[in-house]
Amino acid sequence: MRPPGGQRSGVSRKRGGTPMTVAALAFLMTGVLLNAGAQLLLKAGTNVLGVLTLTRDTWPDTLLRMATQGYFVLGIACYVLSVFVWILGLSRVPVSVAYPLLSVGYVVNAIAAYFLFGEAVTLTRWLGIGFIVIGVWLVARS
Questions:
Q1: What is the CA radius of gyration of the chain?
Q2: pLDDT above 80: residue 14
Q3: Cβ contacts of residue 24 below 8 Å, gap of 6+?
Q4: What are the pLDDT digits (tens) for 83-122?
Q5: CA pair distance 107, 103, nearest whole angstrom
Q6: Can you state the percent helix, strand and coil of the chain, rounding each to 5?
Q7: Any residues with CB less than 8 A from the CB of 74 and at least 6 apart, and which?
Q8: Global pTM?
């Protein structure tokens, strides 16, 4: 059911780009960085606990170990906070502009994984990340 005037509630039919304000960019990038931080914290948690398996017999113990491991708790907290910050950013720009910014997390995580965990970041991976960054730049300019 449509409200008076025929337009669906909360849906904008506006064409063209909405300019990216400093506040919108700050919210979106904070959300991206919190999301990347969450990934790194969860990986740190798996490094402490080792390979995790969930079977009928082990899932309660595994979930308890995860729930009491500091890196996991902080990682989940970063995810929750990132959702709220991301919503603040989404309220200011079109999702078609905001969503590609999540790929900045690929760059952040690749660099952090190299330095924090000693993970190999090959030339092929850097090329792929470079293509992603170029794509994000193109979308942001559109």
A1: 19
A2: no
A3: 89, 92, 93
A4: 999 999 999 998 988 888 888 898 999 999 999 999 999 9
A5: 7
A6: 70, 0, 30
A7: 41
A8: 0.79
CA 132, 133, 139, 142 dihedral sign is negative
And the tokens for 115? 């330095």
Nearest Cα to Cα of residue 74 among 42, 106, 46? 42
CA distance 126 to 142: 24
Q: Is the dihedral of CA 133, 137, 140, 142 positive or negative?
A: negative
Dihedral sign for Cα 85, 91, 97, 99, please.
positive
Nearest CA to 80 out of 31, 23, 25, 26 is that of: 31
Chain-centroid distance, C-alpha 80: 11
37: DSSP letter: H
